[in-house]
Design a protein that fits this description.
Elements lengths: L27 E3 L4 E3 L2 E2 L3 E4 L2 E3 L2 E2 L2 E4 L4 E3 L2 E8 L2 E3 L2 E8 L4 E3 L2 E8 L4 E3 L2 E3 L14 H15 L1
Parallel strand pairs: 1-4, 2-5, 3-6, 4-7, 5-8, 6-9, 7-9, 8-10, 9-11, 10-12, 11-13, 12-14, 13-15
């Protein structure tokens, strides 16, 4: 009753039904009147003009002038014109003059336009992947290691 048959008379499979193809270069857009709570993951480009509370992971991310993001960004390229409260990890980061970023930026390339606001640490990641995390050693623990080495050589 509901089964479909293709031109050869065989039952249709999932691959036989036509689907619109996604064109490269067309970003997914979160418009100014849209508010999202949750993480966004996209393999293409994302343009945020609304309000997002959550992390965003994509190939290219653009944060529009009136946009607010309460969460981290991870992409190959990030362009910020609006407000971001969270860590930014990308190969290329551009902060426009209207950008307001509170959080650390891990980057290979960073451009900050005059007038942009940034409160956080900027760290260049030359050959290491953007996801690398630095570790620290407590001063007391480092002193114990030095003392143990001196004892071993005596």
């Amino acid at each position: 009753m509901f089964s479909k048959v293709n031109k050869s008379g065989q039952p249709a499979t999932v691959h036989d039904s036509p689907r619109p193809s996604v064109k490269a270069g067309i970003p997914s857009i979160i418009s100014a009147d849209l508010r999202i709570t949750g993480d966004l993951v996209c393999s293409g480009d994302v343009q945020i003009d609304g309000w997002v509370e959550g992390d965003i992971q994509s190939r290219n991310i653009t944060i529009g002038e009136g946009a607010t993001v309460q969460g981290g960004l991870q992409a190959e390229s990030v362009r910020i014109c609006g407000l971001v409260n969270g860590e930014v990890r990308a190969d290329m980061v551009v902060l426009e003059k209207t950008a307001r970023v509170t959080g650390d930026i891990l980057h290979k390339s960073l451009a900050i336009e005059q007038g942009a606001y940034l409160e956080g640490m900027c760290r260049r990641t030359d050959t290491h992947p953007v996801t690398a995390v630095a570790t620290t050693v407590e001063p007391a623990a480092a002193k114990e290691v030095v003392t143990e080495k001196k004892a071993a050589t005596a």
